[in-house]
Amino acid sequence: MIRILADTSTLYSTAEGKEKNIIITPLSVSLDNQTYREFDEISSKQFLELLKSGSIPVSSQPSIGDKMDIYASYENDEIIDLTIADGLSGTYQSACMARSEQPHAKHIHVVNTTTLCGPHRYLVQKAIKLVEQGIGCEEILAALQESINDNISFLIPQDYSFLKRGGRLTPAAAALGGLLKLVAIMTQTSDGSRLEKYAVKRTWKGAMEEMLKCFKERGINQDYYISVSHADNLERAEYVKSIVEKELQCEVEILELSPVFITQGGPGCVALQAIKR
């Protein structure tokens, strides 16, 4: 049997994972000396309320022990573990370490998706579908890699202090902190491990034109899954969705970011992402 594992970067909760017959390990956030497993112990709404008090949150990945326990529970199965982008989280490295301790390590396939949130969610959906179709493990891994090789993410933060504090910016990107009155577009570095400046525009209209130009140059169309994720900024997310759907004639899904990604992108941030189906 093939088991699909992932983490809450997919914006799936552990309960939703059970409904889909997959295993979701929660990422965690800590603030005010208390740690919460996102979705299980704290919702995005509750988390945003706590932030209003001025608390500074910190995020963390599933422990190596948790991963080892899960892997050990399925020693007779093939395991495909789809992790959030290595570098943006330590989840991939932890999973690799946990895998190395298992006697059935050759049956555990830890995949660095190089992405997060919307595209990560899609990869899990694709894996589930392929398993249901009876496709073999190696074929599934190859099919997932085709999608992983063609994905792009843009992030527009509203409060730059969260990204700077998280330490996931290149030095040049960190220097943008004083430009908050402008619309700064961030994207992942080529290896997916950090965020860097893509462009800085005076208005959201200009930012949308820049992101759409990139999408069109890359040939993004109905053959891609496109998502807009937001941190309590539904009005802006709907604005982005409407423009993308009009310009590209593609369906766009709106997702609500989890506490861990609000910790990184800050309240009000909006992400536009695409991945090859």
Concise description?
By secondary structure, the chain is α/β, with parallel strands linked by helices. It has two domains: 2-27 and 62-148, Dihydroxyacetone kinase, domain 1 (Rossmann fold); 151-276, Hypothetical Protein Tm841, Chain: A,domain 3, CATH 3.30.1180. The protein has helices spanning 14-19, 44-51, 64-73, 91-100, 118-132, 137-148, 160-166, 171-174, 204-217, 234-248, 259-265, and strands at residues 2-7, 23-25, 28-31, 34-37, 58-60, 78-83, 108-112, 151-156, 183-188, 195-201, 224-230, 252-256, 270-276.
Describe the structure.
- This is EDD domain protein DegV family.
- Keywords: Lipid-binding.
- GO terms for molecular function: lipid binding.
- This protein has eleven helices and 13 strands.
- The chain is an alpha/beta fold.
- The chain has two domains: 113 residues, Rossmann fold, CATH 3.40.50; 126 residues, Hypothetical Protein Tm841, Chain: A,domain 3.
- The protein has a six-stranded mixed sheet with strand order 10-9-8-13-11-12, with helices on both faces.
- α10 links the parallel β11 and β12.
- The protein is globular and about 55 Å long.
| Structure classification | alpha/beta
* Strand residue percentage: 15-25%
Looking at the structure, the CATH topology of the largest domain is Hypothetical Protein Tm841, Chain: A,domain 3
Unreliable spans = none
Total domain count: 2
- Measured distance between first and last alpha carbons: 24 Å
Rg calculated over all Cα atoms = 18 Å
The CATH top-level class label of the largest domain: Alpha Beta
The level of helicity is 25-40%
Organism: Amedibacillus dolichus CAG:375
Keywords: Lipid-binding
InterPro entries: DegV (IPR003797), DegV_C (IPR043168), DegV_domain_contain (IPR050270)
Protein name: EDD domain protein DegV family
